[in-house]
Amino acid sequence: MTGPRERLQELGxxxxxxxxxxxxxxxxxxxxxxxxxxGQLPLVGGELPATGLVGADVDPDDAAAYARxxxxxxxxxxxxxxxxxxxxxxxxxxxxxxSAPGFGGQPQVVNGxxxxxxxxxxxxxxxxxxxxxxAALPLGAPVEVEVVVxxx
Length: 152
Prior knowledge:
By secondary structure, the protein is α+β, with helices and mostly antiparallel strands.
C-alpha cells in the first residue's frame, strides 16, 4: 500500500518547511484524534508567489495553484506535529479567496486544495468543504486554506 509520502513523491512534490507563524498562533493543533491547522497561505520559501484579488489581480487558475500550495503547507504543519502517516482521513477544508467584486469562482479556486488532498490520500482525502470569498487576506495573499484531519 502506498502511503501519503510516496504519493507526494509520485506527484513530484515534497513537503516544505513549516512556515513561521505571522502572528500569535501555532501552525497546527491536535485535539483528541484530530489535527486542525491554522490558515495556511501559499508561501513558497517564505514568500507569496502573488498578491491581490482573484478575478482582478490574480487569474483564477493561478489562484487554484496557490490553493494547492497552501494545502501542501497545511500538510507540512500536520506532518511536523504528528506525521503524515498518522492521518486516517481529511475531514474538512475551508478555503478563503480574496475576491474581486463580482467574482464567484471561489469553489473552482479551492478545488486546487481539494484535488491535492484527493491525490495524496485517495478516498480518505474526500472531505466536507467551504469556499468563502473575502475582501482581503493576510499579507495580501490571494488564498488561505485550513485543513482538519482525523488520526489513526
